[in-house]
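User: Um, any thoughts?
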Amino acid sequence: MEKNNRTVKRTLEIMELIREANRPLTCREIAQRLNIPQTSAFDITRTLLMEEYLEYAAPGSKAYTLGVKCFELGSGYTQRQNLVQLVQPYAERLMNLSNSTCFLASIYKHQIIYLNKIEAPTSVHTSAVLGSRGYMHNTGLGKAILARYPMDKVEEIFSKSNIEKLTDFTITTLDELKLDLERTRQRGYAIDDREGNIDVYCIAAPIIDHTSQPIAAISVAMMYSARTDILVEQLSGVLVESAQAISRKLGYSGSLY
């Protein structure tokens, strides 16, 4: 049986208590309601206050309410859930047209994080699971996003990545990546040509928000053996059209690249 960390558990209990109370609570009230030592409650609330997960209800008050960081966390979760729902019909259309797996991923620090995966019954099944992360330089999803970034940011992300040669086609140098990103901008979508998995070919396009920033990407992943130039041309057109339509719904009216 896994052992819970007592301090973390108490921290979460304090935040839940304040959320459910619907009014500010003092350190003494928190300790009494949770039946914990007041010194423990003070240490935890003080840390949460410093990190902006709690704040004082008013100047001079000693009662706590949830802070701005809690709002940011909740907003991030809501945005991701809304994005999944927004992209769903477009991903389903791509899956049906291609009989392939469609992915949605967003950005997590210098990586991508998979938010959704829609698989056709006979499509390629990949090891990527929801909530897992991947590097940007060796995935179509990641490169679709990188191609929107200024070069200094690309260099920073590349320097923080695990540059492992997964296949004979994996990009392992910054010069290779820069060339690939330039080709991505010219063609209008990114390609993962067996770079992470020797059997998988992927095309991807970015999703842009109202601030003109890439916030996610969608992709179609197929078996390399099923790839044809005609199929890629047909699917890339629908993919780019879908990414542009999603971006317009988020308030962006420009081109993807």
Remarks:
- The longest strand covers residues 214-223.
- The mean pLDDT is 88.
- Residues 68-98 form the longest helix (31 residues).
- The helical segments are 6-21, 27-34, 38-50, 68-98, 140-146, 151-159, 174-187, 229-249.
